[in-house]
Amino acid sequence: MSTAIDSGGAGGGIHRILAHLSSPNGNNSPRTAENSRDIEINVTTPTTTTTTTTTTEEEERTTWIRGFYRLDRIFSGSLVHLLYRLVDIVLLFIGLTANGLQCSRSDRLAITSICLLIFYFLDLTIIFLTFIRNLRPQYSLLTEAEKNERLQYVTFFRGFLTFFKLFPLCAGTAYSFPSSLSANTDCELLRFCLGVVCLSSWLFILIPPAKPVLPVRRSLIIECILLIFVLTINCTYFGTVATAMINIESSSCIYNSPEDFYSKAPLKSYAFVGLILFGCTTGLHIINLVINQIYFRSNRGRHIYSYYYALQYILSYFAAIVVIYYISIGGLFLFQPRSGQTCQSDAPNLYRVLLIWEWIRLLSPLIIIPLLLLTCCLGVCFGILLTYCLPASVTVPILDLLRVR
Q1: Disulfide-capable partner of 190 in 20, 95, 167, 175 (CB 3.0 to 4.6 Å)?
Q2: Side-chain half-sphere of 266: how many Cα atoms within 13 Å?
Q3: What residues contact 289, with CB distance under 8 A and at least 6 apart?
């Protein structure tokens, strides 16, 4: 008996176990060590190849996103806000220097602009120093936890500065929208630039810039419903604004020189730019819908689509910048102290239509956020009621389905 046990050796016992596990029928048919080794190789090789292919495809799809987040962490989490800050700094510099010495540095508009510039430069200094520090070779030797801890520390300090920046931001908003224009027009360009910076800053708080993500897979029906919703709003905007622009030839409503930006409100030119801008964003939305459906239905060349989504994010990012500052300029044209100026009396219908759409754009984030919170609260309450009223075998699939939707 000892001879029978020892004849296969330890290796023979292992191979017999592998042969049993590798057998499709799970039977105990005797196999030699060589056959068992062949089965082991035949079973493991396709699995490894499939896993490698899947991993490679996933890496191709997410490489640019992972690279973005690495670069964002090197810039202390400010990469998506960096261009906005540079635009604000340029606007404030234009307001402070374009008028020469006409606008006194002791004016409240100038003081507020200088305070905002100080906060912006402090923020950029922190970002630059952190960037230089993170480029050192020692940074690559840190663990993920240490990198996140360093990022949290810098983010907390920058958030502390952002809190104090709200005070000059509130003051600049109040100074940019007084009850009426002053008799002295020396500081009107500075008032205009400061107003654009303040309004855009508030909009960034309500509508933060989006970070890149992989496309979400939706059914064709859901995509069509979303497209119909977007087209309904944009077509309503196009129809009302284009109708209000007909037969308006007044020079007070048309842009003729750079001084028109801060001396009057050229509403017809402003509306024309809005039609072009929102027409481009609508076309981009339709193209993204088509590409998205092709991406999830195609089995070849899917890595090419991933590069398209990188380009899509860049285009969407710059489009968001243009839209934000466009809305901010519209607020200065349509609200006090300008309130349309002479164009309001020359084209009252155009002024009324643009004012309504401006309020819709500004108030929609304030309406959407409470609705989202209400929906989340109702979902939690609905889930609690389900858990009390139904067994777990019924509740869990329903909640999982709701979570996916």
Answers
A1: 95
A2: 17
A3: 223, 226, 227
Using the CB atoms, write b or e for 69-98: b if 16+ within 10 Å: eeebbbbbbbbbbeebbebbbebbeebbee
Q: Which helix (H) or strand (E) holds 85?
A: helix 79-97
Q: How far apart are CA 96 and CA 354, in angstroms?
A: 30
The answer to whether the predicted template modeling score (pTM) of the entire model surpasses 0.85 is no
54: its two tokens: 């899947």
Q: Which residues of the chain have pLDDT under 50?
A: 1-61
Of 331, 329, 322, nearest to 359 (Cα)? 331
At residue 144, what is the residue type? E
Which of 239, 226, 204, 242 lies closest to 285 in space, CA to CA?
Answer: 226
Q: Within 10 A of 122 (CB to CB), how many other CB atoms are there?
A: 15
Locus of tokens 């196009």 = 238
Which pLDDT belongs to residue 302?
67
pLDDT value of residue 44: 40
Q: Measure the CA–CA gap between 298 and 280, rounded to whole angstroms.
A: 27
Query: What is the rounded CA–CA span in Å between residue 309 and residue 290?
Result: 12
Q: How many CB atoms lie within 10 A of CB 36?
A: 22
Dihedral sign of CA atoms 240, 242, 243, 247 in order: positive
> Do 201 and 324 touch, CB atoms closer than 8 A?
no
Q: How far apart are CA 358 and CA 196, in angstroms?
A: 14
What letter represents residue 397's amino acid? P
d(CA 123, CA 127): 6
H or E element in which residue 263 lies? helix 260-263
> What backbone torsions phi and psi does residue 259 show, to the nearest 5 degrees?
-65, -20
* Cα first-last separation, the chain: 64
Q: Which pLDDT score, from 0 to 100, does residue 240 have?
A: 93
> pLDDT at position 237, please?
93
Neighbours of 47 (CB within 10 A): 9
Tokens 């987040």 belong to: 69
Q: Which two tokens stand for residue 375?
A: 């929906």
The pLDDT value recorded for residue 31 is 42
Rounded Cα distance between 193 and 176, Å, is 9
Based on the number of CB atoms within 10 Å of its own CB, is 19 exposed (0-12), middle (13-18) or buried (19 or more)? buried
The C-alpha atoms of residue 109 and residue 55 are separated, in whole angstroms, by: 56
Judged by DSSP in three states, 92 sits in: helix
